[in-house]
Amino acid sequence: MAMSQALPSARAPARWQDFVQLLKPRVMSLVVFTGLTGLVCAGHPINPVLAAIAILCIAVGAGASASLNMWYDADIDAKMRRTRSRPVPAGRVQGADALALGVVLSLFSVMLMGMALNWLAAGLLAFTIIFYAVVYTIWLKRWTAQNIVIGGLAGALPPVIGWAAATGTVPLNAWLLCAIIFMWTPPHFWALSLYTSEDYEKAGVPMMPLVAGAASTRRQILVYSLLFVPVCLLPAVTGLGGAPYLAVAALGGAIFILLAARLSRSHAGESREQRNDDGLYDVRAGAKDARNLFAFSILYLTLLFATLLGEHLMGVQTLELLR
Amino acid sequence: MSDPSRETDVELKARRGRNIALALGLVLFVILIFVVTIIRLGGNVTNNPS
User: Among A114, A170, A234, B49, which has the minimal tally of Cβ within 10 Å of its Cβ?
Assistant: First the structure.
């Protein structure tokens, strides 16, 4: 494979912290949060130790796919400002070691999930890891501007895995949690790519602003936002969310659409001025609207899942407006 | 002249850290399998009608 030739040989000795960094702990914490929400929302009695093991398996599975991603993407990571200090492109960890860690942790997390919880949850976890590492990382990411739209499924599945771990089934409400994250992904990542596209350009990753242009990306962000917010309201119709959830989803959704509309009228992504430093929040003057939507999208998704989690832990009455 | 094949202090320290992390991971793995076995087995014993 051409990739392996591009990997630098290790320069500094690998510390254990470098292997932790391969697991992308920040992404892991988000996956733990959404997986836990799915597990709790299932509302099924489960041994707390087994519940903790289910969350551990989801976290380790996410870490495994991150490690496989860092192994395969070392060549493009080395070209991007945001990723060039990762352990493999920086030469602190050999690519083969990242691959080995990813494979071992994948097997560990799937087998433990199957033995401790059930094989439906284990199968979904295996599918998620393969989808992220193979379908997204190896295939979609370098091939199509729809990479994060389709690949977003991998990030959207943890609540379904959590639900399956608790009940052994995946009803409509579990898929609704998946749909919320799936529809959230395009506006979130495209808003980010509007002000980091020069990085992706250097690496040759076909992100939407590079392929379709900034104006088209801004329009597509607005379209996805208009589709995303109604999906966020659905849990209040299907017996998953209560009145607090409806209030958060509606109010936050209105702000989300407002920010997306503002972004669509802006010139974000069109300026070619250089940024001053490496910060994600340091943006060109014209891209402030993109940064605002990116930052709010994180807050909105966190609030939606935190509200659902809080409601189910406190036993708040859910709404079933359709019934 | 120093022997280039000998590990430096930094390399030794890094290796020691990796070994300790690996050992802790293996101990955690054994504990996890033990706990899962007890819970799953215990549940089945309790549910056994005989």
Answer: B49
Q: What is the ipTM of this complex?
A: 0.82
Is A150 in the same domain as A189?
no
Q: Are residues A162 and A178 in the same domain?
A: no
The two structure tokens encoding residue A152: 């977003």
Percent of chain A with pLDDT over 70: 91
Nearest by CB to B15, from A13, A47, A49: name it. Answer: A13
How far is the CA of A276 from the CAs of A50, A215, A280, A309, B35, in angstroms? 48, 24, 11, 40, 52
| Mutation target vs B (from A11, A15, A16, A118; most B CBs, 10 A cutoff) | A16
Strand partners, A318: A242
Window A:192-251, CB contacts with B under 8 Å: none
Could you tell me which chain A residue has the CA closest to the CA of B18? Answer: A16
Which one-letter DSSP state was computed for residue A242?
A: B
Q: Do B14 and A13 touch (CB under 8 A)?
A: yes
CA A45 from chain centre, in angstroms, equals: 28
Average pLDDT over residues A25-54: 95
Residues A249 and A185 in one domain: yes
Those residues with Cβ within 8 angstroms of residue A228's Cβ, 6 or more apart along the chain or in another chain = A180, A183, A184, A187, A256
Of the candidates A51, A50, A58, the residue with the CA atom closest to the CA atom of residue A31: A58
Token duo for residue A35 = 């997986």
Residue A319: pLDDT over 80: yes
Q: Does B17 touch chain A (CB under 8 A)?
A: yes
Is A39 domain-assigned?
A: yes
Residue A234 lies in a domain: yes
Rounded (10°) CA dihedral A83, A304, A135, A196: -30
CATH code for position A106: 1.10.357.140
